[in-house]
Amino acid sequence: MRKEAGAVSAAAILVAAAFVVPHVDISQVDFPHLDLSMTPLINASPERFRTFAGTAPIFGWWNAHVGPGTVPAVMIAVAAVLWGPALAQRLPWRWLPWMSWAVSCTWAFSLAMVDGWQRGFAGRLTARHEYLRQVSGVTDIPEALRTFSSRILDYQPDSWITHVSGHPPGALLTFVWLDRIGLSGGAWAGLLCLLAGSSIAAAIVVAVRALADEGTARLAAPFAAVAPTAIWIAVSADGYFAGVAAWGIALLAVAISRTTGQPMLAAAGAGLLLGWGIFLNYGLALMALPALAVLLSANSWRTALTTLAPALLAALGVGLVFLAAGFWWFDGYLLVQERYWQGIANDRPFQYWGWANFASVVCAIGLGSVAGIARAFDLAAIRRRSGLHLLVLGALLAILVADLSRLSKAETERIWLPFTVWLVAAAALLPRQSHRWWLALNVTGALAINHLILTNW
What residues contact residue 332 under an 8 Å CB cut-off, 6+ apart? Predict the structure, then answer.
């Protein structure tokens, strides 16, 4: 337990520092050759600081509150700690992924409802920077795709709003299509994100079973079902993006382990989902690292290559469809970097966010998951190419690359959901007798954040 205690202690200190440092005045310290500024936001009035950095490293506002979701959320948390591990062991396997999804969905919805129906759920995706504000303006989908890149940069008469410009067209198209079939408005959009995002719990269980064994998957299930990531899954479009990517990885794991009678079909499905994912979020290109980790766990290079081939072809097929429609991914990626620096990112210094981003990751996954991550650094398991260990390390590497790119400064508790959800699975590596304690720590942290901070998502 020494390794876990060290990791959790370091993580707790990191989180405390990230919350405290922005409010410590070090302007009087006389070190003329050193830049000691650790503010999360520069060029900011007190009001702007409170709005965009008052609760850094989490994006939100201090607001101790309760709501309609408080009692259900607490009840789910208590039940998960007291009975979750035992129930996960007893349930028939065919029911476990479905139960994990159901509990995760209820948990996420309850946490959202702490802020109330409109503020916590139905109104989240109707804010002025969100996708739904742009949906009514898309009257010609082919034309929108052909001209998408030309509208990414800011300060043009027809510039896309913030979230639309910051993502490939697949994200906007999803909500346009939802509107076209009659499911318009924030509640339907929120439901899509909730269902897709909460299904990650089932994807984790399926993937862990394929990469490790059923026993390990059963150990992971309670942690996946009541993960603190649920705070940002309900409701943000990133919950939907993370759900798509998670099932892509899960299908890849099923294909590589040959636990299905149709491994090539599963691999192609993985490629379709991961290919669609990079047209939802440019950052999902980094899902190549967890995907590579899954491929490395194959029992032979032949298995890895025969899995990679259909997955790669399917992903390329998605790219070709968008190219034929007039959108070239690399054009959008280059332009979105320019747009990124036209906005608030220019006022978010890397001196703070370069390390505080990791504090937001700790808040998103919980200290119990941090303890599990400490166990993932097992050289013997890595040498024998244990799939779960490699997947966790692949997700960590993706987060590190994203951080060093300087294109992820703040809001990473939401933006990095596609990566952080796999860190939750690491808790399955902890000693079974300790699971209740780590689960309790995770749900307590999630409830505290959700009731003390009015999160922006």
Answer: 148, 149, 152, 168, 169, 282
Residue from 200, 280, 210, 274 nearest 233 by CA: 200
Transcribe 287-329 into DSSP letters.
Answer: GHHHHHHHHHTSSSHHHHHHHHHHHHHHHHHHHHHHHHHT--H
Place of tokens 């490699």: 390
Ranges of residues in the chain with a pLDDT under 70 are: 25-37
Helix (H, G, I), strand (E, B) or coil at 106: helix
Of residues 254, 255, 238, the one with CA closest to residue 130: 238
**CA 15 distance to own-chain centroid:** 18
Tell me the C-alpha distance between 209 and 391, whole Å: 13
CB 449 within 8 A of CB 414: no
**Cα dihedral across residues 335, 42, 452, 201: positive or negative:** positive
Phi, psi angle pair for 62, to nearest 5°: -65, 125
Integer Cα distance of 455 and 123 in angstroms: 13
| Strand (E) or helix (H) holding 214 | helix 214-225
pLDDT at site 1: 75
* Nearest alpha carbon to residue 119 among 235, 3, 203, 40: 235
Helical axes 186-198 vs 169-180, angle rounded to 10°: 120
- Helix, strand, or coil (residue 377): coil
- Distance (Å, rounded) from C-alpha 378 to C-alpha 82? 29
Which one-letter amino acid corresponds to residue 422?
Answer: W
Bond before 71 cis per omega within 30 degrees: no
Helix axis angle for 417-424 and 350-365, nearest 10°, is 50
Return the pLDDT at 26. Answer: 56
Identify the CA nearest to 41 among candidates 33, 55, 52, 26. Answer: 52
Task: Spell out the domain ranges in the chain.
Answer: 66-343+385-444
Rounded CA-CA distance 202/250 in Å is: 9
Q: Which residue has the tokens 């992903």?
A: 315
Alpha-carbon span 216 to 22, nearest angstrom: 40
Per the listing, tokens 């205690």 go with 5
Closest listed residue to residue 98, CA positions, set 225, 280, 214: 225
Instruction: Tell me the three state secondary structure of residue 61.
Output: strand
